[in-house]
Design a protein that fits this description.
The structure is a homodimer.
Chain A (H helix, E strand, L loop, with lengths): L1 E4 L1 H7 L7 H13 L4 E6 L12 H7 L7 E5 L3 H8 L7 E7 L2 H8 L3 H17 L3 E7 L12 H13 L4 E5 L7 H14 L4 E5 L7 H10 L4 E4 L19 H10 L8 H15 L6 H5 L11
Parallel strand pairs in A: 1-2, 1-8, 2-3, 3-4, 4-5, 5-6, 6-7, 7-8
Helix pairs in contact in A: 2-11, 8-9, 10-11
Chain lengths: ~300, ~300
């Protein structure tokens, strides 16, 4: 079971306030200390567009991670990759992204899907030449807020192209929480056939409360790689008040309760989420933060 | 697929303020209008203990429900049943309850499980003599906050006794959200073997975010009866801030998205939840209230 923590990028990016670099570094190190072995640290985006991540270079330089952690950086374009490569020794993986639906891709990055694929091709080639591992994430893979249904065939064709362009892992994002368990199960069964040798990752949002039900369906279809965010941070909650990413601690709790090993210390992960809560000065919304882990260590009944 | 709406009892009971009878009646009628065909209307409890439901008789007398609705009343004991029977024509079903774990039952109703079973036996006999349908709910069926693990064998033995005492339906309550999908699947498969001819109902809480994942697991094990609460009301949220019952609108949304027919109009159910929100004067927390239903009615991509 592999879990990529995306909170330091996806979460911090969506906060109204800019966290100090030292706070980010502390939180990332707490996540590593909790046993997270895949962490998306930041993104090299234009600081005028996303001031929350303007300190990407400083975060990479300051953070100290054990060798067990695969650190990744979200790369919006070739220029972002060049900036990141100035700190090549600080990360092992890049994440590139596009949307499966034309209108979402257009509104998100101002390009057609074909243009995004061409750009990702160049980015991935450069990254592979630098011996970086490459993940590609396809947003709106289970539905688009502007276009509605997105055909699985279309998503898988894009995924196949991404694999040809060098992606070793492909994440499928349920960007606005439209997926249901039946759809998820059917999709990943088809994806496994279409993409042999590619690591398939599920990135669910809990927008409509089905996040962990979709995780269960994905597990049942053989998926063993997930993305989530500590404290339930981020995930572009739209409309305001809606839930975004599934919370890492809720995911880990369910997996552990099901007897699935993750190598993550749930107590320490919760400590990291509590530290984020304190740093942000507002209550975070994950279920485990409110309820705490299940406590079975009591004398059994009857 | 059968869904029992428990908000008017479980939800209103757990509100700090007492809702006016007319408001309760309006909300119940909205739920019926949305197509809910099983509604727990109130409970005949001691008004000094639960003042929120002191108007049980007035609610029963005032509410106007279509013949398609099976109205039920939660009955804490034989005395409560006698009070309810003064309004016999106003409901078709009673719900009796106990806990699977001794300490939870003791703290909840001040009786041993054996004493509760004896009382339920008398209550059910009287109810059956009045041609009332009988549901029994077993709380802490998947774990107890005081005792930890509760053996499925113990829960099923209690369930068998309840069936012998006249329960036609048995609900299994995950009172503090300790259940996980693997546990749920195994439990209901065993329950179906142990309790032939008894309707088996799942009553999940979303305390740790696994509510709908547990619904999915139960569905896969053949369960087709669920209890939930509109607006995510009630469910004894402990500690404060934790989530209780799964929200009816979140449940219905997932079922509909999976192509499972419920006969419920999700838009009207959301209207009822919004009306409850307005009546209570605070934002309710269901996911659908924030995010709205999935909208697939847009031009498809590619």
């Amino acid at each position: 079971m592999r879990i990529r923590e995306v909170g330091p990028r996806d979460g911090f990016q969506n906060e109204p306030e800019v966290l100090p670099t030292a706070t980010k570094v502390d939180l990332i190190e707490r996540l590593a200390c909790a046993g997270l072995t895949r962490i998306e640290l930041t993104s090299f985006v234009r600081p005028d567009v996303i001031p929350q991540l303007a300190d990407a270079a400083a975060v990479l330089e300051a953070v100290r991670l054990p060798a067990s952690v695969t650190a990744s950086v979200l790369i919006p374009n070739e220029r972002g990759l060049e900036s990141a490569l100035e700190h090549r020794s600080k990360f092992q993986e890049i994440n590139g992204f596009l949307s499966a639906s034309e209108s979402h891709n257009q509104r998100n990055v101002g390009r057609s899907v074909a243009e995004s694929l061409a750009g990702l091709g160049r980015t991935f080639a450069r990254a592979r030449a630098e011996s970086l591992r490459v993940e590609a994430v396809i947003s709106t893979a289970f539905g688009c807020p502007y276009e509605g249904r997105v055909e699985p065939r279309r998503v898988l064709q894009i995924a196949e192209q991404l694999a040809e362009l060098g992606a070793q892992e492909i994440g499928f994002g349920d960007t606005t929480g439209m997926a249901n368990p039946l759809q998820v199960a059917a999709f990943f069964e088809e994806a496994a056939r279409a993409l042999p040798g590619v690591e398939l990752t599920a990135h669910f949002h809990n927008t409509r409360g089905q996040g962990l039900a979709n995780v269960l369906a994905a597990l049942q279809s053989g998926v063993s790689s997930f993305e989530s965010s500590f404290g339930e941070l981020g995930g572009c909650p739209v409309p305001r008040g809606a839930t975004g990413n599934i919370a890492s601690e809720d995911l880990v709790s369910m997996l552990h309760e099901m007897g699935i090993h993750t190598g993550i210390d749930l107590g320490r992960l919760l400590d990291a989420a509590r530290a984020a809560q304190q740093a942000l000065g507002r209550p975070l919304r994950s279920h485990l933060l409110s309820a705490g882990p299940v406590d079975w260590q009591r004398p059994p009944s009857g």
